[in-house]
Amino acid sequence: MDHEKRKQLHIFFFPFMIQGHIIPVLDMAKLFASRGVKTSFVTTPANAALFSKSVESMKSEGHNSDILIINFPVKEAGLPDGFESFDSAETREMSRKSFLATSFLAQPLDQLLEEHRPSCIVADMLFPWATGVASKHGIPRLVFHGTCCFSVCATECVRVYEPHRTLSSDDDVFVIPGLPGEIRLKRKQLPVFMRLGSEFCKFYGEIKKSELESFGVLVNSFYELEQVYVDYYRDGLGRKAWHIGPLALCHNDIESKANRGKEASIDKNKCLEWLNSKKPISVVYVCFGSLANFESSQLLEIARALEDSKQYFIWVVKRERSGEDTEDWLPEGYEIRNEGKGLIIRGWSPQLMILEHEAVGAFVTHCGWNSTLEAITVGVPMVTWPVAAEQFYNEKLVTEVLRIGVPVGAQKWARRVGDSIKKEAIEKAVTRTMTGQEGDEMRNRARKFGETAKRAVKEGGSSYTDLSAFIEELKQISNLR
Ligand SMILES: O=c1ccn([C@@H]2O[C@H](COP(=O)(O)OP(=O)(O)O[C@H]3O[C@H](CO)[C@@H](O)[C@H](O)[C@H]3O)[C@@H](O)[C@H]2O)c(=O)[nH]1
């Protein structure tokens, strides 16, 4: 084992337990494996079962990859048995407990590091204690935020300068101090914990401290996309970062794209057949990631907007809604009336496969970073509908910096979306993105970014080179050269 370790780098990948973090981290593991690194994916039993096929497929490609399981500390955290995924937190209290509970994972992680002695650990930003655990074993800890550099910088500038503190109302607008580009936001678009201050603010401070003490940050983005902000992050804020994305580009074939993440709720061939029957740039794809919750009244507005728009559509509605007895979010006879025009996926869609299809002309998205980057990579412009987390920042990047999206008009950060956006606004934003000169211009810009993204991950490209530089540095400090 010692001999093997000296020859091969070994990296632990330890994501926060939600789809939006697990999926890109598994892609990252696949990317490192393709460069000859031994990879171990660390997670809890239910998540291991959900994602074991990704690790199995890495193994079948001849990579040295495995899953290491640690138990989620439900008892210590006062959470119900079987709780393992943060998206299943039903109440704010559960959500609070589950965030704070992660510190109980330090001890089992410590044991795994003792047992396996990897070269380094890539741990989620939401595990600030991981830096200390790694340092105890003399190994570097890398941070993974899940989002882009623009939003990491914006969050940091708001945290440090607190521009919202001097405003008198939630509707007041402020410019993010220090951040290049005069980015304006309303106070109510900031996360609740930032606006009101809470236990999570303190936790966020710990996150930032541990990031500063860590070896650096691995980012799922590419230099050319947000050059000004990458430079600001590295030179202005003085952080060490490697931009190695888009990570989703590690999936080359349709099978691998369709199988990424959870099992899709639609047969991939049926989905492809449906898309193949449509002309290029005629379909709007609507999906709000894995966490966003919409009230029935808001879903009804979406349903009506899609029905009245002149576009074909694929609309993904999370299973929690669709599994309810009454489908009160869908107008009577909707699917029969819209047969052939619209495809509703109840549950999980094969998003990568759908987005890259030539029939897809626009993406209505909540601006989760994975979804945003996936759209950019395949040159699809967006209708931006941020809901929570850092999504209001991502929207600014898409609509104002990159100019490849139209805002639907979301005004307020919320865990659950009421009927705030009316049918007319949705329809208008979709039409602007799908048609006319404005739509064409956004599409052309998006396609250029997509081409640059693909070049970035090829040999000699910016992400490829950053990844090589990181691996070399890691080899040096691990005495593997
Ligand atoms: O039906 C679905 C729904 C989602 N996805 C995939 O799931 C991922 C979802 O990630 P993302 O778009 O980032 O959304 P969230 O699940 O909401 O992600 C959380 O994590 C992200 C990364 O940190 C943050 O940017 C978001 O704000 C946060 O909500 C993407 O890869 C999608 O392709 C599917 O394949 N099918």
From TrEMBL:
EC number: 2.4.1.-
Keyword Oxidoreductase in annotation: no
Enzyme class, first EC level, given as a word: transferase
Catalysis performed (reactions): an anthocyanidin + UDP-alpha-D-glucose + H(+) = an anthocyanidin 3-O-beta-D-glucoside + UDP
Highest taxon, organism lineage: Eukaryota
Cross-referenced SUPFAM superfamilies: UDP-Glycosyltransferase/glycogen phosphorylase
Keyword Glycosyltransferase carried by entry: yes
GO-annotated molecular function: anthocyanidin 3-O-glucosyltransferase activity
Domain Glycosyltransferase N-terminal, residue spans: 10-247
Keywords: Glycosyltransferase, Transferase
Pfam family, one: UDPGT
Pathway: Pigment biosynthesis; anthocyanin biosynthesis
InterPro entries per record: Glyco_transf_N, UDP_glucos_trans, UDP_glycos_trans_CS
Recorded family membership: Belongs to the UDP-glycosyltransferase family.
Name this protein carries in UniProt: Glycosyltransferase
Species assigned in the record: Erythroxylum novogranatense
